[in-house]
Every structure is written in C-alpha cells, then in structure tokens.
Write a structure and sequence with these properties.
The protein is of the alpha/beta class. The protein is 32% helix and 27% strand. The protein contains 8 helices and 12 strands. The strands form 3 sheets. Strands 6-9-10-3-11-12 form a 6-stranded mixed β-sheet, sandwiched between helices. α6 links the parallel β9 and β10. α5 runs parallel beside α6.
Length: 284
Amino acid sequence: MSVPNDRAAGSVLSIRDLHVTVEADGAPREILKGVDLTVRAGETHAIMGPNGSGKSTLAYSVAGHPKYTVTSGTVTLDGADVLAMTVDERARAGLFLAMQYPVEVPGVSVSNFLRSAATAIRGEAPKLRLWVKEQKEAMARLDMDPDFATRSVNEGFSGGEKKRHEILQLELLRPKIAILDETDSGLDVDALRVVSEGVNRVRATGDTGVLLITHYTRILRYIQPDFVHVFIGGRIVEEGGRELADELETNGYTKYGAELAATRPPSTHSLPAGPIFGGTTTPA
C-alpha cells in the first residue's frame, strides 16, 4: 500500500485572515486578529515575537486544539480545508506539531507510540524488523539511548529528552508541514545542536515545510530560515529574511511599541496541553 500523502507536487499550507478566540474569565477573548501566512514544502519560516503575542495560539489552532475557536478565516493544506478535519485527520493529511510542553503518556512505550503513528501516516504497519532498524538509526542520530524505546512516552524525561523525542517523531513521520513550537525552550547548547541537526535533516529532503516558533535567535544560528515574521498582538506586523532576526537580536521589539501597547493578548500557556499531535493522538 502506498503512503497516502503525495508529496511529489510540493505541499502548501495556506492561512488566510485567521481570527481565533479563547475563553478567558468566562468570556471569549480574541487572540489571533487576522493572520495571513503561506508555508511551502522546502521552506523554513521563523515566527518571532514577545510573550503573549499569540504565536502558540497559531500553532494550536492549526493543529486543532479544542480550547481555541476559529471565528473566521481559512486554513488549507494542498487545497483541503484543514479546519473541517479532526485532529487525527490533520495529522494523516501531513500536519505535525512539536509542542512546547510535550505531555507524558504513562503506559504507552515510545516504540509502540512511534510505530502506531507511522502506521496511521503510511496506511499500513511497517514491517517490524525494518521498523526497529529505522527507529534505532534515527535515535542514534539524535544521541538517544536505545533504552528510551521501552520507556513510557515522555514519562520522567528531562526537557531535552522530550524535545529530542519530538524531533525523533519528525524524522520518522516526515510530515508535509512541521510546526515547531519553541523547540529550543529549555535546551542546553549540546541538545540545541542535536535537535537542530535533526530538523535540518528533514529540511534537506525538500519535502517538508517548517514553521519555527521562537523567542530567540540562537536556534536560527543552526536552522537558517528563509523567511522571518514578527508576530505581535495576534498578527504579523513585519516580514523579512534572516537579517530581520539579526535586527531583533540587536534591538528587540522596541520599535513595535505602538503595536504592543495597542493590544497584548493574555498568555494561554496555562491551558491544558490537549492531544499529542503527530502521527496519532492521545486524549489529554
């Protein structure tokens, strides 16, 4: 059986005039206020912005987190309506979210989780002997102890181990579009290098578009973006190339003072993490 995701033509994620609300203090609060963004296979887009600007809301809204309500706008992947899909349908269609705070899944081993995800994506279970070899090789590239395969998903993992596991999923599942939500958060220099190398291996295939959400430029020293978008107040306020990230590192967000003062959505990081979003889903 062939893989259901045909990547030959090059995939396109298109976000148009996206408005999203979340419940806050018993009433809906608008977080995203008209986001327009296009990510194509082979491209890397970095979204940068201060805390509370709505970056993670964008990631979770595209992934289908139930706490976020899309009030208007469209999200399509290769012309298909993403917003009409369930979370697992979005994953099978080729979307992938590496979460900022990966959740623990007691009782489900990493190996079983990954093979189940690959089965859902590929349409059939990988042959066990070939899969074990593929998984071991991917883990070795990420400097992961082989014993991690037998441990419960993320249970007792350090922050760096959780992030390596997210990139392990990315390498094995090879989605059309990968959304990486602050993958650099909590990583030391060595872990950042290893994780970035994993992302770059997937980028090098040209089959995956990457949307990289980050506060800082340090990860962009390892993962060179094609486009940089400044995200403030629930919308993109400026776009450019790698030089824009360098400018932000030097000057911060002070020049966007008017946008910051006009509206600053409340932080939603305290919301439940929701489903794991990759090749398969697990209820929160």
